[in-house]
Design goal:
With about 150 residues, the protein is an alpha+beta fold. It is built from 2 helices and 6 strands, in the order H-H-E-E-E-E-E-E. A hairpin with a 5-residue loop joins strand 3 and strand 4.
Length: about 150
């Protein structure tokens, strides 16, 4: 019986080590999702970016019909310039408790089938996320307008 105990201990240690190695290999082999680069902007488009304001952002969550949690970012986008805007690109950065970026996402909050966002107009938008990193601090992301189409 005295010999059985060290053997069982060694087997448990080896199994735990293999489990850790397998977990590291699985995490390392997962493809890293990188948001596509924003389009190149003309001088007019670049100058117009400050005229677009994103405000009243808030995060919420709901369960979908499959029982999975879906996270939403709701907000308002305003056109404070003098041109109608047909397309808009935003960059969102989610951070952890140490304020380190854990996810960068891009979205297009204006529906392409909807009429353009007129000068002076404000419109609600929603961006849906099915998966956010566990490290995320549960706060709304920082948002920057990075492209505009007239």
């Amino acid at each position: 019986m005295a010999e059985e105990r060290p053997t069982v201990t060694y087997i448990l240690i080896a199994a735990a080590a293999l489990g850790v190695i397998a977990a590291v290999l699985v995490l390392a082999s997962r493809p890293h999702r990188q948001a596509p680069s924003p389009p190149t902007l003309s001088a007019d488009q670049q100058a117009y970016l400050p005229q677009i304001v994103v405000s009243d952002t808030r995060m919420s969550a709901a369960e979908n019909f499959l029982g999975h949690t879906v996270i939403y970012l709701d907000g308002q986008v305003s056109n404070r310039g003098n041109r109608a805007v047909r397309g808009l690109g935003i960059r969102m950065e989610f951070v952890d408790m140490l304020n380190q970026v854990v996810l960068r996402e891009r979205a297009h909050p204006l529906n392409p089938q909807a009429p353009p966002l007129k000068p002076g107009e404000t419109r609600a938008f929603r961006v849906t996320f099915e998966h956010l990193p566990l490290e995320w601090n549960q706060a709304a992301p920082t948002i920057a307008v990075e492209s505009v189409e007239f």
